[in-house]
Design a protein that fits this description.
With 108 residues, this protein is mainly alpha-helical. It contains six helices and two strands; from the N terminus they run H-H-H-E-H-H-H-E. Strands 1-2 form a two-stranded antiparallel ribbon.
């Protein structure tokens, strides 16, 4: 049971917005947002995980998908945004420093 819980936690954290923006390089996060065709122009480093999740939430939906059969990931993203908000709060001293030194992640 403990092993399954740890595996589930690892899988959930791998897709977490905070992990995507803090643990990985800026290029990885920016490329992911570009590939999803989000409408965000920049992601600030302070509360970057929650911002990343909301950018993904407002990404373009594919044109060739039937509206009744499309499985929207919105509930999962909303849960992830809540978890990211908690993690972003814990990482606030680090992200304030990174925002001051590196600025926001610009999505071209």
């Amino acid at each position: 049971m403990k092993t399954q819980a740890m595996m589930l936690a690892t899988l959930m954290l791998a897709g977490c917005g905070t992990v995507q923006t803090v643990a990985f390089s800026d290029r990885v996060s920016v490329n992911q947002l570009k590939n999803q065709k989000t409408y965000c122009g920049a992601v600030p480093r302070i509360y970057s995980g929650a911002t990343y999740d909301f950018c993904m939430l407002h990404a373009e939906k594919p044109d060739d998908v039937d509206a009744f059969n499309y499985k929207n990931a919105s509930p999962g993203l909303l849960v992830d945004a809540a978890v990211s908000g908690v993690l972003d709060t814990l990482l606030l001293p680090y992200t304030i420093y990174k925002q001051h030194t590196d600025g926001s992640m610009i999505i071209n």
